[in-house]
Each structure stands twice: as C-alpha cells, then as structure tokens.
Amino acid sequence: MDPIIESLFYLLTPNALIWVFIGVGIGVVAGAIPGLGGGMIMAILLPVTFTIHHLDAQIFLIGIYVGGVSGGLISAVLLGVPGSPAAVMTVMDGHAMTKQGKAARALSMGIMASVVGGMTSWVLLVMLSAPLATFAARLQSFDYFAFIVLGLILIAFAGSGSPLRGIVAGLFGMLAAMVGFDSISATNRFTFGVPDIANGFHILPVLIGAFAIRQVFTDVRGGGEQLRTPPTASVSEVVGQLSGVFKYPFLLIRSSVLGSFIGLLPGIGANIGAVISYISAQALSRNNGKFGKGAEEGIIAAECGNNATVGGALMPMISLGIPGSGQDVILMAALVLHQVQPGPMLIYEHPDIFYGIISGYLFANIMMLILMVIAIRYLVMIIRTPMSVLAPAILIFCVVGVISANNLLSDTWVMLGFGVVGYLMSRFKYPLAPFVIGFVLAPLAEERLRSSLMSTGGEWGPLLTRPIAMTCFALVVVVLLFPILKKFVQFRLASE
C-alpha cells in the first residue's frame, strides 16, 4: 500500500484523531489570546510528547501549529488586536468590518480563507516533499553546509527590518549552540569552568525560554490586562456565510500559492506571508482604496497567506532537515527527543513519520475548520482573560516541563536565562527567528563542514567548485550585496 494512504488510514484511528483534536483545540485557544500564540504553547507542551508515540507527538504539535496560526484571526477581528503575529494584517480589514456590524462576515471570510490556504499548501506539500527529499539525499556534506549558510542569510534578511540585526541574532544563536563538550577535539568550549553547562545548552530549556518566558516577560511588563468586551458572533451566522469566500477564486489561489512558497524560505514566518499576500492583493485589486477600511479581499489574502506558509515551512523541515519557522524547530526537537533524525534520509528510514506529518497537516486543517466554527462564542470569553491570571500558570508549566525532561534543576536557570535573552532581543529589535534557528542549525552545519574537510584533507576547494555549493554561495553574495546596490541606485537617482 502507498505510504501516504497508510498514513491517512492511521490518522482515521480514534487515537490519532484525539491527538489532532486536542492539538488543534489548544492551538486555536492559544492563537486567540493576544500575546500567547501557538509557538509558545508548543514549547511549553513539548515535554508532554516524551511519553507518547513519535507520530502522535508530531500530529499533536502540528495541530497546535495550525490552530495557533488560524486562531489569531478571532481576536484580530473582534478586538482589533492580533492574537498572533500571523494575524497582524487581518486586523486592518477584519476589525473595520466588526465596527461596521459585520463581525460574522469577517470571521467567515477569515476561517474559510485559512482552510483554503492550508489545503492548497498541503497539495504542494504532497507534490514536492518527496522529490525534494530525493534531491537532498544526493547532496554531499559541502552542499548541505552551503544550503544551511544560505538559509541563515535568508532568515537574517527576510525576517527582519535590519539585515545586520538578523545576522547578529543568527550568529549569537550559533555561538550559544557551541557551548559545551566538543567530541572531535575532546575539549570544553565556552563553559568558563561551569560544570552544569559542560554538556551544552539542552534544546528544550532554550526553546521554552526564548518563546514562552520571553513572551511572559513582555506581557507582564506591558500590563496585559483585559482590553474591553468584544462583540459576539453566533455559529449559525458564521456557517451561513462561509461560502462567500469563493467569490474570489483567483485571490484565493494566488495568495495560497504565494504563502506556500514564502513558507519554503527558512525562518520567514506566517506574518511575512500575510504581509506579502496582503500587499499583492491590494496592488492587483480594482478596489484597493477599500483596503484597511473593511475589504473582504484583505482578510482573505492575509489569512490565505499566513496559513499557507505552514505547509510551505514543513517542506524543508521533513525533506532537508532545515526548519522553515520557529515552530518547525520544535517539531524537529520532538523528533530528536524520540531518537529520529530529521533530514533527507527521513523518507527512507522512517516513511511512516514522513508521510504521517503530511497527512497530519491535512487532518489538522479539517479539524481547524470544525473547531473554529463551533468554539467561536466560547473563545471570545477566553480572549478577555487578563495576563495577570495567565502568566503564573504559564510559568508553572514551563518549570515543570523543563525539569521533567532531564531531571536537572540547572535547566530551569538556562530557561530563565534565555527568557531574559529573548526579552532583551525583543526590546532592542533583534529578531528571534534567526537566533533560534541558528541555535538549531549550528551543530548540523559544523558537523557537515568538519566531515567534509576531513574527507578532503582540509581542502576548501569543493565549496567553490561543486555546482550546488557554488550556486548557494553565489546567492549568499547576491543577498549580501543587494542592500548596498539598492542604496547606490537610490543615491544615483536622487543626485540626477
């Protein structure tokens, strides 16, 4: 039987459906609460996956991922505050429609656009993941190292207003990953005589600190109290208007495909997918003057774009072992904790997981549609929960989860330390995605580079002579020089 069919049958078992339901439900609630977010909840609940089957763990976390991106539209429409960064563009037209008494219409457009975006990216995931993995399996270590370097540069330039800040954040993440024992040279690096970090920083406390603790610090500092009573929308109103989104077929297809390919670029994230989809929709619309004032097209473009990036980001994760977003880092961490190595060989060594992730993403989108419609009137009550109530509960879950992973009290201090690091990076406008992905990719990049140099006797030549590696480094140079060339052109035009 075809592996994709087998994985679909597995997803139809009661056990798998329960994990999808729980994951999506948690994600939608987290996404709907401003300042919480699916990525933060994924980090908090990562320890839960230790005790369950490795495929169920992926299904559960993918459910949170999908639900977290989609749930943000509820508070964006009803409160005018994006529940997650992915919903930042949805606010512009969604809340404007709410003020016009069209909250149910706005929610309907957003929910169905989210489903269409997710389903479209799932189709592309099915079509492209296996060929991409087959191609990646033929890569040599020099090629793989070049791909990682290109990915880190793209993260720095695409995920931040300042490319220099993105590069600094990525390098800092790589530096943090180098702390601990070096198995090749048999020496401790950057431990400064502290025995508790002789084995390096474990991935779990770093992720929970960077995602969860940082956000708690940010929300507590900002007050995070109840904003106001949001308007409500009944289930019947929302269901009755779901089909309205299909009045814009070309917009749906364009935004979904655009979001999917944006997701392919490592570290860019759903918020960038939403922004670019929204801008393209506005530029090509005959009614672009209505954008920001309650345009249905604006909601559709934003929600199609941000949800499609999820499937796009899963492609490099399962095919190349390169996380496409911060949430994919957590998915990879769950695989590693189950002794499963993500990367080009995943499709050959663990086809059940490879195709199970693809099928899990499909079921998560279907479950998201059902839960979003049913749970709307209850979610608007949760939205009003003040951070003064949520923050203590979140901190307790974080501490318990981190200690239970390795039975090390020192991991709690690591978690708090990286929470402070994440908070300071946020305060000074340094992007978190390059830091986290740099931390995850640095050991892999170092391993590939060292093994390559050992095989060539220290010769660096293949980095510039192998076609794939040479192409990647040529693209790195282009990306690095582009801002300089852009400013030069602008200067010449201004002086003429």
Write the layout of secondary structure elements.
Layout: H1 3-11, H2 14-32, H3 38-45, H4 54-78, H5 90-99, H6 103-137, H7 141-158, H8 163-177, E1 180-182, E2 187-189, H9 203-222, H10 235-240, H11 249-264, H12 270-284, H13 296-320, H14 326-337, H15 346-349, H16 351-382, H17 387-406, H18 410-427, H19 432-455, H20 462-465, H21 467-495
Antiparallel strand pairs: 1-2
State the end-to-end CA separation. Answer: 67 Å
Q: Determine the fraction of residues in helical runs and give it as a percent range.
A: over 70%
Low-confidence stretches: 224-229
Figure out the total of helices. Answer: 21
Q: What is the radius of gyration computed over CA atoms, rounded to a whole number of angstroms?
A: 22 Å
Structural class: mainly alpha
What is the tally of beta strands?
2
Largest sheet: 2 strands, antiparallel
Shape: globular
| pLDDT averaged over residues | 79
Keyword list:
mainly alpha, two-stranded antiparallel ribbon, 2 strands
